[in-house]
Design brief:
The complex is a heterodimer of chains A (about 525) and B (about 110).
Chain A lengths: L1 H8 L5 E4 L16 E3 L8 H11 L6 H20 L6 E2 L2 E2 L12 E3 L5 H16 L3 E4 L2 E9 L2 E9 L4 E6 L3 E3 L20 H8 L4 E2 L4 E10 L10 H8 L2 E3 L23 H13 L9 E4 L5 H17 L9 E10 L2 E2 L12 E3 L16 H23 L6 H12 L7 H15 L3 E2 L1 H18 L13 H25 L8 E2 L14 E5 L2 E4 L1
Parallel strand pairs in A: 1-6, 10-17, 18-19
Antiparallel strand pairs in A: 2-5, 3-4, 7-8, 8-9, 11-16, 11-20, 12-15, 13-14, 14-15, 20-21
Helix pairs in contact in A: 1-4, 1-9, 2-3, 3-9, 5-13, 11-12, 11-13, 12-13
Chain B lengths: L2 E8 L7 E8 L6 H11 L20 E4 L2 E4 L9 E5 L6 E3 L2 E2 L10
Parallel strand pairs in B: 1-5
Antiparallel strand pairs in B: 1-2, 3-4, 3-5, 6-7
The chains are: A alpha+beta (about 525), B mainly beta (about 110).
The complex binds flavin-adenine dinucleotide and FE2/S2 (inorganic) cluster.
C-alpha cells in the first residue's frame, strides 16, 4: 500500500493495487501486534539502528539495503505519525521499548497490541485519499508474471470470486507478497503467505538470495488452545513485563544453552531462545505439549492490567489468568530474511520487475532484529513505488498476449481430482520435520526426496475444471506449485551452507565459518532452483 | 469419543439449498474454522469458506452463520453437538459458506 501511495504521489496516474484476499487485510502486516523499530527517539540516529541491524545479520546484510531500511524507515514512521497512525506517546515523544538486539529503546507501537491493524488501517485510508490514481482490486491471485524479451510486462491472475483468468498489462510491476511461513505446519502468519512472490520472481528470471534463513519465533503460543489471539502475542508481554521462561520442571534454562541469566528481563535474542527451547525439549525437559513454560505469575495483577488492559480480558475469556497460570510456548515459523535480490531502487535483475517488503532478501542478513520487518515493508514500499512511477513515465513495450498464453493455458486446464488441502499439509510436515531451525545433511536430503515425490503427485494440472467461484481445491494446487519451488529453494540453500549462522543452524556444522560470510544466490534452471 | 456434527450449507447461487452432514472427532479448544480446515484436509477439499489470518481475528474474512447467528469462524469455539453453518444471508453467495464481502469499490466488475 505504501508503494501504491508513493507511486501515485510521484505522478503515476494509473496504479493497480491487487491482493489475493481483501486489500490490506490478507497479509502479515495486519497481524503484527508488537512494535516497529525506527530511530525516531531523542538522541537516536538511523546509523545506530544500522549498526544493530548489521550485527544481528551476522555479516550477511546488504549494507546499502540495511541503511535504507533504517534511514527511509524512520522517515516513514514519522510520516505515518502525521497520517495519525497513533503511535503510543510518552511525554513529548513516542513511547518506545527496547527489544533484544537494539542498543536502546527504539521500538514504537500502538496500544494495546494494535500496531499492525493501525498501520494497515492508516495505509488503507491514505490509499483511498489518493483517489482515482489507485485502483484497488481484491481477490486477485497472481499466478505468473508475463515476460517479453526478458522484461516483465504484466501478469496473469485468477479472479478468485469468479474463477476467471485475468491478464494485467503494466510498465512496472512490484512484488509485495510477503513471506513464506505457510511452508511450515506451525506458523504465525496468514494462509496467504505461500511465498508466491519468490516463485513468481524466480520463474520470471530473477535471482533469490538467503533462502536458507527462515526466522523462527521462539515463544509462539503452544497451549492451552487460544482463540482470537495471534500466536506471537507473548513477545510484547515480555518487552513490557519481562516474564520467566521455564522448562518442564519449572527451572530457568536459557543459561544452560549459552544465554545470559535474564533475571526477569527480556534479553535473549530470537535465535538463541529457539535453540535453548528446542534443546531443552530434546533433552526431555520440555513442558507437557513439547515446549517451554512462560510465566508472569510473579507480576502483580494491577501491573498486568496497566500494561495490557483489554488483552487481559480476552485471555480471561479463554480461561487464562496470568497471575495464576503459566502458558506453553514453542518456536514457530515467523518471518523470512531471504527473498528477491534487488538494488537500492528495489529493482530486481529483470527489467520491469521490482520487489518490496518481506519479499525482498538481503536487508536483514542471517537474522532479523525484532521491529525491523514493518519498517522494511514501509521503507522498501516507498522506494519501490517511486521507482515504479519513474519507469512507468518512461513507457514500456506493449503487452503481447502471446507471451501470456502458457500461464493462461495453465489456468484453463482440467486435471484429475486431488486432495490438494492434504498435499499442502504434507508439504508443511516435510518442511517442519527436516527444514526447521535445526538442520542436518541427512534431514535435508530426506526433505529433498520427499518434496520430489510430492512434486510428482501434484503433477502439472490443477484439479477439476476452471470457472468455479472460490475454488479452494484449485487455489491450493496453484499455491502448491509455488510452495514446492520455494520449499526446494530453501532446501537447496540450506544444504549448500555447511555452517551455522543466525537463523540457519546445521547440527552437523555447528560453527560459524568465515568462508561462509557470503550470500547464496539462486536462480531457476530447467525448472529447478540452482545455486547461481 | 465425543463428536461434533456439522450441517454445512453447500452449493452456489441458483442451486437448490442443501446441507451436507459431516461428523468429526471433537477436539477441545478448537475453533469452528479449525474444524472446517480439518474437514478439507481429511474429507472434502472442495468445501468453500473464507479465511486468511487463521486465528488472529485480524482479516475479518471468516464471517458466517452458526445456528443462525453471525460469527467469526476463527473465534467461535467448536462444541460437541450438532452445529449448523450457513453463508451470510445478506451478502451475495459465491459457493458453500463463501460470500462476497469485499467493499464494492474493491471488486472486479
Ligand atoms: C503474527 C505476526 C506478528 C508480527 N509482528 C511484527 C512486529 O511486531 N513488528 C515487525 O516489525 N514485524 C512483525 N511481523 C513481521 C511483519 O508483519 C511482516 O514482515 C510485514 O508486515 C510484511 O509486510 P509486507 O507488506 O511485505 O507483506 P504482507 O503484509 O504479508 O502482505 C502481503 C500481501 O500479499 C498478498 N499476496 C500474497 N501472494 C499473492 C499473490 N500471489 N497474488 C496477490 N496477492 C498476494 C497477501 O494476501 C498479502 O495481503 C509480524 C508477523 C506476523 C505474522
Ligand atoms: S480468519 Fe481472519 S478473522 Fe477469522
Amino acid at each position: 500500500m505504501y508503494a501504491a501511495i508513493e507511486a501515485a504521489r510521484q505522478g503515476a496516474g494509473s496504479v493497480l493495487l491487487l491482493d489475493r484476499s481483501l486489500i490490506g487485510r490478507g497479509g502479515a502486516t495486519v497481524m503484527a501486534q508488537m512494535t516497529v523499530a525506527a530511530a525516531v527517539g531523542p538522541g537516536d540516529d538511523w546509523r545506530h539502528h544500522l549498526a544493530d541491524t548489521l550485527a544481528a545479520g551476522r555479516g550477511l546484510c546488504d549494507p546499502e539495503l540495511a541503511a535504507l531500511l533504517c534511514e527511509v524507515g524512520a522517515e516513514c514512521i514519522l510520516e505515518m505519525d502525521r497520517w495519525k497512525v497513533g503511535w503510543a506517546r510518552a511525554g513529548n515523544g513516542f513511547a518506545s521499548v527496547q527489544a533484544p538486539g537494539h542498543d536502546r529503546a527504539r521500538c514504537v507501537y500502538v496500544d494495546f497490541l494494535s500496531t499492525g491493524p493501525a498501520v494497515s488501517k492508516t495505509l488503507r485510508a491514505q490509499v483511498q485519499r489518493v483517489g482515482d490514481a489507485i485502483r484497488r482490486v481484491g481477490e486477485v491471485l497472481v499466478t505468473d508474471l508475463v515476460v517479453q524479451q526478458g522484461r516483465v510486462t504484466g501478469a496473469v491472475a485468477l479472479h478468485v470470486a469468479s474463477g476467471a483468468a485475468l491478464t494485467i498489462a503494466a510498465p512496472a510491476t512490484i512484488i509485495a507478497t510477503g513471506g513464506l511461513t505457510r511452508l511450515y505446519a506451525r506458523n504465525s502468519a496468514s494462509a496467504n503467505m505461500s511465498g508466491d512472490g519468490y516463485a513468481l520472481a524466480m520463474r520470471a528470471g530473477a535471482t533469490l538470495l538467503d533462502m536458507e534463513f527462515v526466522q523462527f519465533f521462539p515463544i509462539g503460543h503452544l497451549a492451552p488452545r487460544l482463540i482470537g489471539m495471534d500466536p506471537i502475542m507473548w513477545d510484547p508481554f515480555r518487552y513490557k513485563l519481562g516474564g520467566r521462561l521455564l522448562n518442564g520442571a519449572m527451572q530457568e534454562f536459557v543459561e544452560r544453552w549459552g544465554g545470559d541469566a535474564e533475571n526477569g528481563t527480556y534479553s535473549t535474542t530470537r535465535d538463541l531462545a529457539t535453540y535453548a527451547i528446542t534443546k531443552e525439549v530434546e533433552a526431555g525437559r520440555g513442558s507437557p505439549n513439547g515446549g517451554a513454560w512462560l510465566s508472569f505469575t510473579h507480576v502483580p495483577a494491577a501491573e498486568l492490567r496497566a500494561a495490557f488492559g483489554p488483552v487481559i480480558d480476552r485471555l480471561a475469556a479463554n480461561g487464562i489468568d496470568l497471575t495464576r497460570d503459566c502458558i506453553e510456548v514453542s518456536p514457530i515459523a515467523h518471518y523470512h530474511m531471504g527473498g528477491v535480490r534487488v538494488d537500492t531502487a528495489m529493482r530486481t535483475d529483470v527489467p520491469g520487475l521490482l520487489a518490496a517488503g518481506e519479499a525482498v532478501g538481503g536487508a536483514n542478513g542471517a537474522n532479523r532484529l525484532s521491529g525491523n520487518a514493518i519498517t522494511e515493508a514501509l521503507a522498501f514500499g516507498r522506494l519501490a513505488g517511486a521507482e515504479a512511477a519513474r519507469q512507468a513515465a518512461e513507457g514500456a513495450p506493449g503487452f503481447d498476449l502471446a507471451a501470456a498464453r502458457p500461464a493462461l493455458a495453465l489456468l484453463a486446464s482440467e486435471g484429475p481430482a486431488q486432495n490438494t488441502a492434504a498435499l499442502v499439509a504434507r508439504l508443511q510436515h516435510i518442511m517442519s520435520a527436516d527444514v526447521g531451525p535445526f538442520r542436518t545433511a541427512a534431514g535435508l536430503a530426506r526433505a529433498a526426496t520427499a518434496l520430489a515425490a510430492l512434486r510428482g503427485e501434484v503433477g502439472t494440472t490443477p484439479p477439476a475444471a476452471p470457472g468455479l467461484a472460490h475454488d479452494l481445491a484449485r487455489m491450493d494446487w496453484l499455491d502448491l506449485r509455488q510452495m514446492l519451488l520455494v520449499a526446494e529453494s530453501v532446501v537447496v540453500a540450506a544444504t549448500a551452507r555447511t555452517e551455522s549462522r543466525g537463523a540457519h543452524q546445521r547440527e552437523d556444522f555447528p560453527e560459524m565459518s568465515p568462508n561462509w560470510e557470503r550470500n547464496l544466490p539462486l536462480r531457476l534452471s530447467a525448472g529447478v532452483p540452482e545455486l547461481a | 469419543m465425543p463428536t461434533t456434527t456439522l450441517h454445512i450449507r453447500r452449493g452456489g447461487p441458483g442451486e437448490p439449498p442443501r446441507h451436507d452432514v459431516f461428523e468429526l472427532a471433537f477436539e477441545p479448544g478448537e475453533s469452528v474454522l479449525d474444524a472446517l480446515r480439518r474437514l478439507r484436509i481429511g474429507t472434502d477439499p472442495t468445501l468453500a469458506f473464507r479465511y486468511a489470518c487463521l486465528n488472529a481475528n485480524a482479516c475479518k474474512e471468516c464471517m458466517m452463520l452458526l445456528d443462525g447467528k453471525v460469527i467469526y469462524a476463527c473465534t467461535a469455539r467448536l462444541e460437541a453437538r450438532d452445529m449448523r453453518l450457513d453463508p451470510l444471508p445478506n451478502k451475495t453467495l459465491l459457493r458453500d459458506l463463501a460470500t462476497v464481502i469485499a467493499p464494492p469499490d474493491e471488486r472486479l466488475e
